[in-house]
Amino acid sequence: MKETTYPLKTVLCIEDDAGILEGLVNTLKYYFKEVYSARDGEEGVQLWEEKRPDLVLCDIQMPKRNGIEVAKHIRKTDRATPIVMLTAYTSERYLIELINLNIQHFIQKPASIDRLLEGIKAAFVGESSGTFTLGEEVFLDVEKETLTCKGEMTLLSHKESRFLALLASHDLVTYAMMETQLWQGDVSEAARKSFIRDLRKKLPEGVVENVSKRGFRLG
Question: pTM of the prediction?
Fold first, then answer.
């Protein structure tokens, strides 16, 4: 399969780890017209102001300005440019705030080339819409709380939308995460099963996959 390239687009990488930053830049040079790099959030904001790239890849934990602060600065005047967050930590503590900032995608570090390119592709698919990619032709719009499957749109409840956003940004959504993020407290196994059963009726088969005794992940 031919890899997707972006010969007319530019990208800004903001990452405080010199080794990771060098790897990102060297990889992305093959796919993008131009790759800009910054070692901290302050330098990243300055470069964004100067270059106005078509995509921003940004670490969350950084000196001077963290990724949240960088995203807030960008979103003051620009709601459309895709921002992909890189994080070595589980992003649940940031998830709702980042959704409100119209962040397209999260990538867990260390990121393989395949995962990096998948995240970039998903971000451009969701450009200007705050969309997460859940599967082939399956997209979640967290702002509108809608699910689009092969062009057909379905309305979601707020809880369903939040759960799918968690799935899109984590390798595994545990039962504990569901209780904290969706119910803000304990929930019965019967209620959790009922929630998943009803949600699956709105999704193509295999999108939500059980992980025995632990939780759920994208299939």
Answer: 0.59
